[in-house]
């Protein structure tokens, strides 16, 4: 099928590349010319495992191209994905101005046959109908109809497109894998024609043709109305964030009573009603989705006169959790002024270069406030030299350099390669061998055998 994806951030680019890989004819549109030029040369502007290879092979097969020309994209696609950012405003609401600009642009370029316009961006509940209205506004503008002229859409124009909500659930760092191995596909909309076209688009994924485990039953498609599909995305992320805040709260109680939260998580996770995922206690959740989506849901509820007691608590627990590592440093080192603290990892989670709302940012800020000197080593940030606008931290090029002269190390991100670090060598260059394991990631006993004082989160 002919597809146009507008916006080449994490969601848009991964969607475009993966749809091309499963056989569709895809054009990805972005208004950032430098980014488009980079992608035209087969280079991915984001770090995402497996993405660059798929991107290049799809480009070679002629099924994937990039352009800044929205009109050409709209003309090409029978399915048009809106996948631009909806960053949080200071109020916690989503900033939908990019979605609005794209919807208007689609309307202004709408010609030819029937098209499905897909909301892939995480948009506030109710945005499906709003997008439809904006597209019609763009179309009216092109047709030269000014406000107040009593313009009525002909049936033909009204029927030339439908809006569908199709939220994504991919995780950064495993976005390609998640796209080929979805747990479900959610399609929200009222048009049978649009839902049928979307189902056809995803058929290879539904059949698990590109999945790691082809013997699994077909992927369920959940068809809902527009608002329910939009709500599914918020509720899924809010539930996962709640699970993490819950286990972090349990970890804090474990710390006080001398229990081990990793054992508790195992014990409760084996109950199939609870499940073992997202029960890893640590310094809390971050990234581009959880913080934004949880606050947007809280905000929407408030708009409709409902106060979300549980979700407010989920956010507050997470705020406290981020600086819990510092409380532990204070317990161990007492005064932090003049102490040197080395952070292992900076990104909000491993296998990504994303620093958005990363717990590391709060930890650096708080350590600076308390007068400590902060150094950091992160496999991606150190390698790429991308500063991410970080201040108050010295970026070291490897873990030994990081350890040199440190009073303590804090493991902030659970990068797999940290398991293979030479902690014995690192202990020798530290002022004192102390590790705060902010992700309960390291082998406590093995680390202690090397002479470290090991402090985990609730263990
Ligand atoms: C999340 C959702 O998982 C995904 O479905 C949605 O589409 C986008 O948001 P992502 O932001 O990539 O994906 O990260 P995820 O792997 O879910 O982790 C989010 C945060 O929670 C990270 O900071 C991670 O370190 C933390 N986390 C996760 C925990 O602290 N404990 C856990 O058990 C799991």
TrEMBL record:
Protein keywords: NAD, Oxidoreductase
Reactions that this protein is recorded to catalyse: UDP-alpha-D-glucose + 2 NAD(+) + H2O = UDP-alpha-D-glucuronate + 2 NADH + 3 H(+)
EC number from the UniProt entry: 1.1.1.22
Gene3D superfamilies attached to this UniProt entry: Cytochrome c1, transmembrane anchor, C-terminal, NAD(P)-binding Rossmann-like Domain
Keyword Oxidoreductase included in the entry's annotation: yes
Listed pathway(s): Nucleotide-sugar biosynthesis; UDP-alpha-D-glucuronate biosynthesis; UDP-alpha-D-glucuronate from UDP-alpha-D-glucose: step 1/1
Coiled-coil stretches noted in the UniProt entry, renumbered to this chain: none
Residue span, UDP-glucose/GDP-mannose dehydrogenase C-terminal domain: 342-444
Keyword presence, DNA damage: no
Uppermost EC category: oxidoreductase
Family according to the record: Belongs to the UDP-glucose/GDP-mannose dehydrogenase family.
Protein known as: UDP-glucose 6-dehydrogenase
Organism of this sequence: Cyanobacterium stanieri LEGE 03274
């Amino acid at each position: 099928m002919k597809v146009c994806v507008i916006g080449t951030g994490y969601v848009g680019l991964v969607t475009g590349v993966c749809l091309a890989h499963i056989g569709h004819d895809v054009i990805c549109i972005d208004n950032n010319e430098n980014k488009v030029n980079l992608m035209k040369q087969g280079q991915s502007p984001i770090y995402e495992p497996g993405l660059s290879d798929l991107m290049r092979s799809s480009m070679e097969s002629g099924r994937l191209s990039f352009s800044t020309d929205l009109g050409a994209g709209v003309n090409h696609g029978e399915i048009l994905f809106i996948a631009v950012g909806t960053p949080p405003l200071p109020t916690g609401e989503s900033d939908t101005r990019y979605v609005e600009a794209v919807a208007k642009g689609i309307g202004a370029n709408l010609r030819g046959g029937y098209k499905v316009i897909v909301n892939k961006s995480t948009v506030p509940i109710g945005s499906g109908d709003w997008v439809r209205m904006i597209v019609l506004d763009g179309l009216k503008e092109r047709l030269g109809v000014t406000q107040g002229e009593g313009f009525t859409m002909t049936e033909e124009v009204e029927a030339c497109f439908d809006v569908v909500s199709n939220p994504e659930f991919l995780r950064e760092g495993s976005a390609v894998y998640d796209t080929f191995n979805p747990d479900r596909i959610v399609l929200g909309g009222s048009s049978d024609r649009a839902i049928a076209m979307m189902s056809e688009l995803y058929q290879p994924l539904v059949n698990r043709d590109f999945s790691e485990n082809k013997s699994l039953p077909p992927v369920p498609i959940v068809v809902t109305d527009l608002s329910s599909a939009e709500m599914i995305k918020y509720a899924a992320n809010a539930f996962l964030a709640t699970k993490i805040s819950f286990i972090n709260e349990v970890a804090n109680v474990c710390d006080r009573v001398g229990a081990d939260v990793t054992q508790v998580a195992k014990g409760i996770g084996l109950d199939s009603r609870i499940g073992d995922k997202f029960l890893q206690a640590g310094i809390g959740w971050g990234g581009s989705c959880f913080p934004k989506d949880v606050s947007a849901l809280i905000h929407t509820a408030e708009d409709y006169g409902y106060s979300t007691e549980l979700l407010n608590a989920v956010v507050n627990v997470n705020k406290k959790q981020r600086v819990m590592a510092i409380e532990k440093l204070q317990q161990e080192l007492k005064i932090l002024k003049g102490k040197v603290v080395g952070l292992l990892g900076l990104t909000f989670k491993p296998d990504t270069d994303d620093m958005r709302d990363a717990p590391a940012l709060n930890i650096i800020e708080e350590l600076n406030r308390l007068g400590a000197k902060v150094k950091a080593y992160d496999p991606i940030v150190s390698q790429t030299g991308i500063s991410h606008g970080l201040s108050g931290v010295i970026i070291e090029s490897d873990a030994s350099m990081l350890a040199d002269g440190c009073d303590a190390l804090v493991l902030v991100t659970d990068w797999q390669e940290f398991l293979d670090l030479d902690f014995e060598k690192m202990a020798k260059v530290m002022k004192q061998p102390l590790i705060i394991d902010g992700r309960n990631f390291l082998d406590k006993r093995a680390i202690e055998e090397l002479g470290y004082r090991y402090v985990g989160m609730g263990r």
